[in-house]
Every structure is written in C-alpha cells, then in structure tokens.
Amino acid sequence: MKKDLLGLQQMTAPEIARILDTAVPMKEITGRQIKKVPTLRGRTVVNVFYEPSTRTRTSFELAAKYLSADTVSISASASSVVKGESLKDTARTICAMGADVVVLRHPMAGAAEMLARTVPAAVINAGDGAHEHPSQALLDLFTVREKTGRLDGLTVAVIGDILHSRVARSDIWGFTTMGATVRLCGPATMIPPGIEATGAAVCRNMEQALDGADVVIMLRIQLERQQQGLFPGVREYARLFGLDEKRLALARPGALVMHPGPVNRGVEISPAVADGVQSMINEQVTNGVAVRMAILYLLSGGGKNE
Amino acid sequence: MNRLLLKGGRVIDPLAGEIIAADVFITDGKIAAVGRELTVEETVVLDVSGKLVAPGLIDMHVHLREPGYEAKETIATGTAAAARGGFTSVACMPNTDPVADNPAVIGYIRAKAQTEGMVNVFPVGAITRESKGEQLAEMAALKEAGAVALSDDGRPVAGAAIMRRAMQYAKMTGLTIISHCEEPSLAAGGAMHEGYMSTVLGLPGIPAAAEEVMVARDIILAEATGCPLHIAHVSTAGSVRLIREAKNRGVPVTAEATPHHFTLTDEAVAGYDTATKVNPPLRTAEDVAALRAGLADGTIDVIATDHAPHTPEEKDVEYAKAPCGMVGLETALGLVWTELVAPGVLSPVEAVRRLTVNPARVLGIARGTLEIGVTADITVIDPELEAVVDPDRFAGKGRNNPFAGRTLRGLAVLTIVAGRVVYDAGPTR
To answer: Does residue B424 carry a catalytic annotation?
Structure first.
C-alpha cells in the first residue's frame, strides 16, 4: 500500500482487490454486537471536511472508532479556515498534533494530492471537487462483488451528471480496472469532453445504456445545475434520465441499482426503485464502513507482513 | 569610456535575413560599425567568438507588477530578469494597481524604469478605464505620455460595441490594440484547458472556443475599422487558422505565441502543480503543433513571454484557487532555441526576427536592428550553452515556472542596453 489513497486511476487490480478482500473480515466486525477491535488503538484519524457531508464523514468516523483509533472531525466553518488559514497550514497544524491519518473532503480537485505532498501522515481523499472519490467507488465495487461474486465481465451503467461527478470518475477507473465494462449516459451538457478515452462508452440514451446491464449506478442531479443552464428542468430530466421500474426492466433481470446518495426521490430515481428489492442503497452505506475500515487498516501499515 | 568592441561573433541581421561573421563596435551607446576584423583604439574588447550577436531581444508582453503588486515583482527585479534572459526591452501590461489607464501611471512607470530599470521599459496603456470594458481610456494622452500600445490584458474587453469604438479611436491615435482574446462567459470559472485532461483531473475547463470566438470577433472588427490588431498569447489551433486566414485577406492583424504554449500541453497539469496554471491555459499536442506551424509560416509574428510573476504564497494553494501566470523572461530564449531552433521549426534568423524586428514593428519602436547609428541594444547568444532551469536562481521575484529542472540549450551570455553591459554570464562566455 502506498502512503495515501488519492484516487483509483493510478491503482492496479491487485491493489484494489486487496482492499476489497480486507473489507470482508471488516464487514464481519461491523455485524457483531460489540463492534470494536483494538487494531488501531493509539492511532489518530482526523477528518477534515471542507464540504458538508453526513454520510461519508460519519462512515469514516465509525470505521476509525470500530478499529479503536482516536478520531477528531473538523468542518471548515468551525475551523481556522474562516480565519484565512491555508489548507497546507491547517494540515501541517493537524499533523503537528500527531495525526496518523488525515481524511480530506474538499471542493477543489487536487486538494488531497497537494496535502499528501505536504504532510507525512497518510492522506485519504474523501472527495476532491470533480476529481475522485475513491472510497465511494471501492464500496461500490465491494457491494457488487459481494452480491454477484465477481466484477470481471460485468456491464455497469452510470447515469446522470458525469461532468461534476467524482463518484463517476472513480467508478470508471475502478470498474474498468477490475475488468467490467462501463457505459455512461446523461445530458449532453454533462458529459465531459474526452471521457471515452478513459475506456468508458458514452450511450445516446438511457435505453441503450441500460440494455442488459448488470449494475445501474444513478448519480445525484444537483438542482442548481439548472440555474447554470446545464439542463432545462427537473421534469425533463426525470423523463430522459430518471430510473423507474419500466426502464429498470431493460437491464439484466435482478440487476443491482446503486446510488451514492443523497437521493432526489422522483427525480433521478423513482421511490419504487429506490426502495425496491434490486436497490443496494442501504447495503452501500453498510459496506461503506467496512471498506473504510479496510482502507484505514491498510494505510496504517496493517497487513504489512502478509 | 563608452566604447565597446564585440570581437569574433557571428552577427544576426534579421532585416537582411543573414548571419555574417563580423565585429560590432559601439560608441556613445550607438552602433558605430559592423564589419570584419575591426581594429579600434582605446576600447574595451569583449571576445564573443563562436557566439551569435543579435539585436537586443524585445519581449512585448510582460507584467512588471509595479505599481501596486510589488510583492510579486518590481520594475527593478522584472528588468533584472529581462537582462538575465537576454531581453533589452520589455513592454509592460497595464493591469497594475492603479491600472495604467492614465498618463500619470505611464509616467510613473517610465520614471521608475529610468532610475531602477536595467533594460528599456515600454509601457502599454489600457484600452478602457480601469480595464473595466465600459469607457474608453484617454488614448491620445496615454500615447503622449509614452504608451506604445493599448491592451486590457487579463481582463478581455467583453463587449463587442466598446471594442469596436476602441479600435476606431485607437486607429486615430496610431496605437495598436493588443487583445487578450477570451470570451469571459465561455471561460468563466475555468482552471485549465477543457478536454480529456480536465475531465480526468476534475478541474473546470476553458474550451478552445473561449479564445477562438473572440479572435474571430476582433479580426472582424479590425477588418471593419482598419485598426491594427495584435492578438496576444495565441494558444489554439483554431486561433492560428483564423489569423492565417485573416492575414491572407489583408486584415491588419499580427499575433504572438509564448514559449509555454509552444512547448507544454495540458498533460503538464497532472499532479496539480500550480506553476502550470496560466491564462490562456496550456492546450493540447495538436495546438502546440499548430502554434509551431504558425510560427514557421509567419502567421505568428512574435514570440513573447507573458511573464506573470506571483508570490509563492499566492501559488501554494489549491489549483482552482491559484492565480494564473508563470514567469518566462529567464527561460524564454532557452526554450526558443531548444524547442524551435534545435528541431528546425525556425532558423536562428527567423527566431531572432520574432524576438526583435517583428515586435519592434508591432509596437512602433526604433529597436530590433543592428544598423549603423541605432541605439546599441545587443544580445549575445551562445547556442551551445546549456543550463538546468532553477527558479531559485532567477533574478526576478517570481518562482512560478513550470520548466524547473529542464535542461535548456541556447542562452544569452551578454546583454547590452545602449552600449552598457547589463548582464554578462562571465566565465561561461
């Protein structure tokens, strides 16, 4: 394992598989009545969140706690950021206090990489702008592998605002590296240029993207994109890119439906699908803790002698 | 004793388009003689055998940051960087604080340059007041104060109507409009070129169209008004095509390219080094090839640096937050020689032409040649001299340069302004 987890683009299939394999026993721990092992006792994990986040932040916090690490979470509004301190200085300060792992969520692409170059602590990218969100993609991979038993040869459709989505990018790298085929679909204004060169295929419409797919990943559409002129309105968006039961029937029977959350019910996904038997949305959240435990464990030097 | 003899060099004459073995004799700050085996009594003799003796290089696009941003650069440090890089003249952009939109600021810059500058400083005045793109600046007064051209560099004139009026009025004053072409609504929020790399890095992109839309607009307005137009820092293949076509049609348009745009691509942004953040952004390999072709066929007349110093604190932040710009005065000549002359894109004479007579013509300044009687601005180039770029050793204040660690071959060893040596590489010469 490298010092940091910044993204999946640079990771190899064995490196990804190792994290997924490590998450299996971690998941077992999260299912126990007493969810605590002493593995990271004496280690300090600091969550630094420059963007509001409930799910990712809580997930990392619980993952660290289940492994007995000490954790502190800092949100931008409550920190010295409002006093004008730079990201680098904030990070240096935290590391001077003895942080072993820094989990960073930041609205600007490249922030985690910049931090990783600055501090000796292990840096985990918990989402940087539209760049990457590796722990989310890893939990997506884990969930699919757990349910279907494999990743190689699967067809994964990612639907929605690809342009602004760090989840889409990390999923593209992760799934293609593990041998799956990735199809993309969304409004033409939200398909970033050159995306085909990542190995993903861009589909003309949702029907084409869903046809026979094993996994459907729906992305959250941020309603302020409408003000930016990127799509004309929610009604048309739902009509063209919303996942309902009728459309889901185009996918392979029993195909998995995923969403990184938070969900806009009735916009990108119908309530019936979000709550249906094929929905993995809750499993994703559960698996997220296990995958993040694996990441923390491996970055803290765990399993070095294996 | 103001007498200097440069002995044994090969003199580049960009007007005649030839290189001749000749000595150059300077007296009282002027070129007194150019010829073989000159023998002159009572003079300082500098041995430049094996070196190229060129007219002093002119960088028609720099940001000296003074007044207002002296932490980034001053006229003293910026012109020291120029001297080190082989430039004897620079034209400085008006986006200072206050903006050089009035005679007082132009006068201040010239006075500072007179007392603290190591090379000639030719100020560029603003097109509009405070470069806001709303009301015309007092162009005639700017010219009288010494402005050599007009530009709202860094803040492109967004409105077509005000640009049209500016061109009509500028033509009357005889000043060229230098246009930073970038349609603000298309570029808004962008941090790098929009393409595969911006997609992968997740950074907001600036499409090539942002530049090309305004290049097309300004060419059309120049054609309509007859005002001489100079397109600053051309960065896309589409812009080169538009300019080539306009020139063929006889539109009074000239253009410049920077060393970073003809050398680097957007792949340099991987790793988020903010030294690579520049406006216009680094483009693709096809754009680099088009710029080189445009330089080779004369579509692009001038090589200029867009030298844009910033403090380390300003640049040492998240990529999207960092200010645009890189310093270029001390790496430009090395890049021209390494990237253009060595691979045969430009001959030495053509390269020197784009750094001397061509910018002098655009600005209408009496520089850029080695004719008898002209001011003795001279740059001696050692085409074999190599050095590794080390920003910590720059004479200028800025360290924001993406070429750190690169080996460049073909460097200035002697810079002479009005007969006075302002930079001498010393033993390496």
So the answer is: no
